[in-house]
Each structure stands twice: as structure tokens, then as C-alpha cells.
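Figure caption, in words: inputs first, then the predicted bound structure.
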Amino acid sequence: MTSRMLPTTKRLIDGLFNGSSSAVARTSLARSITLVESTLQRDREQAELLLDHVLEQRKAKHEGHTGDSSFRVGIAGPPGAGKSTFIETLGLSLTKKGHKVAVLAIDPSSSVTGGSILGDKTRMTYLANCPDAYVRPSPTRGTLGGVAQHTNEIVLLCEACGYDIILVESVGLGQSEIIIDDTVDTVMLLVPPAGGDELQGSKKGIMEIADVVVVNKADGELKSAAKHTAVDYMHALQLARRKEPEWKPTVKMCSAREGEGIDGVWDVLTEFRDTMNAVNKIEGKRSRQSSKWMWNQLNEELMSLAKKNRFVKDEASSLAPDLAHGFISPRSAARKLLEDFLTHPRNK
Ligand code: GDP
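Bound structure (guanosine-5'-diphosphate present):
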């Protein structure tokens, strides 16, 4: 790897630290995110240098301080629950209180379905036009490990740029819950009013990782259905295994469209943060996440080196007939490939 930072990367860094409200900082942030997500070797090297620099600055800033002033909140829930509407209402209310809010989206399911639910349409127009908010137009996509890795890096870039609240919306289906829990400090599940019997099975996975459940659309004709749903979730959460001994998952109701109950939801989220911070659990969670991403990254890089290695490829081809006939087990074949890779780690 070359270790020279290009002048373009240097300019991105200068731009990032220019204060989040400036147009230069926003453009630099958007370009830095593109760089971090690029798969080109040259970009990957520059991305690594950029992130290292960002982390050095972070270290210098936090020298002597414990904890971190940023708060990363994950928002999951089925399509149509009102996540975008909620984030826009919450985001605007937070900027009015003096916060700088960044909104990211992740969509790990799109690597399977090939498309994104959101596409690249402009999202949350009011919030996106607010000088104290940054709304990333397209979701981070890719493999499970890749999405978590990139999202974490993008979070660091946003924080370097001065955003203190990071809202990560999970727009994909399926595995997104796991990813989101690996990326943020707290997970909020947003659900629409629904019949009680729908709760149990389908949402079990996400219920296990939710710190706060919010029933949205508690307005007009839907209000009483929302109340029933909230009670159902309270019962379900009482039966569920607790994620943290210090925290009893809470159920709230709101109307994102009317802007009602949003402050109450935010109060519970910050209460969670304060409770967890008091026992250093946010720091602990972040450090576990970093360690997990490190191993993920190593895993991905080793696999990509092994698959490109000429000796490994040759051995795989010569083993193919025996493997196809069942004369050698996949387990021993894999071991042979590993031995080849360890003997010839580099292509000559
Ligand atoms: P997402 O797919 O979870 O991001 O959901 P959206 O934010 O796009 O909202 C889906 C639909 O629900 C839209 O038609 C919204 O106008 C509507 N919606 C969102 N929040 C509320 C709410 O608080 N009350 C009502 N009645 N409708 C809402």
C-alpha cells in the first residue's frame, strides 16, 4: 500500500473540519463518503488515510475526556411504518434545539434483491434543506459485513464534520436488524398500529434488539388501534429476554405526521443513553462493534487475496473433479487450499 495522501484527499479533510453548516463541509462530507464506499484500490488506500487522519483528530480532541459526545440512534421497522416521516420530524425538532443531525440509511437486502427500496429519490426534503442537517440521499448497500463496516466509517466522517446526532435508518428487510445493532448505540423499533396477533412471530428478531418500541400513527381513526398495539408490545416485551439488565425496554406512542409525542420518544432515547453511559456500556458496545468490524474486514481481505492467488486457483481446479465425484470432502479440499495459500501467500 502506498502511504502518500493525495492533494484531493487533503482537501477533503480540510473541508470536513470546516464546520458542518458550511457548503464546503457538506460537499467534502459527501465526497468523503463516496471515497470510503469505493471499491477501487486507489480509492481504498486514500479512504484509509483519510479515516486514519479523522481518528487521530478525534483522539486529540478527546484526550483527557472519557466518553463521547455523539449519540448514534438506529431506527428500524417495516416499510410504511412512517420511518422517514418520523426522522424528518425528529430531525427538525433536534436542529431547533441546537443539535446537528446526520441521517444515514442502510439497505443490506438490496444486494440480494438487486434494487433499493428507496432508490435515489430525494428524501426528507425539509430536513435535507436545513443547514444543520445532512441527509444522505442513498442507502449504504452491499454484503452484511460491508454495510456495517461502511456505515461505521460514514458515522465517523459525519462526527468529524460536527454532527452530534446520527440517525441510522434501516430500510432493507431481513438482516437489517442485526446490522443496525452492530452500528449504533441504541435501537428504536417503529411500528404502525396493527392487529395484536401480528406481533409475536414476525417481529421477534427485532424485538430482541429493540431498546425502545414506538407505535406511530397514533392520530385520528388510528389512535385507538395504536393504543392496543402499544399494550400488546408491552406484554410481549415483558415476556422477552432483556437485552440489558439495566434497561427495561419501553413502549411509546407518537404521531410523526402531527408531530405529537416526538419529544417523549427523544426523552426515552436519551434516558437510555444516560443509563447506559453511567455504567460505561455505550463505550463498551462501541468497542465490541469495532473489534467485530476489524475481524470482518480481515475476513473479507483474506478471502479476496486467497481467491486471487494463482496457486490456490490452480489447486482448486485440480481438486474440482474429485470434489465433484465425492472422492474428497469439501473440508479436506479447503484445508489443501489453505495450505497452498499459506505456503505461497503472494503470487509471483
Ligand atoms: P417508511 O416506509 O417507514 O419510511 O414510511 P413513510 O414515512 O414513507 O410513511 C408511510 C406512509 O405513512 C406515508 O403515507 C405517510 O404519510 C404515512 N404516515 C407517516 N407517519 C404518519 C403518522 O404519524 N400518522 C399517519 N396517519 N400517517 C403517517
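The domain at 71-278 is CATH 3.40.50.300 (Rossmann fold).
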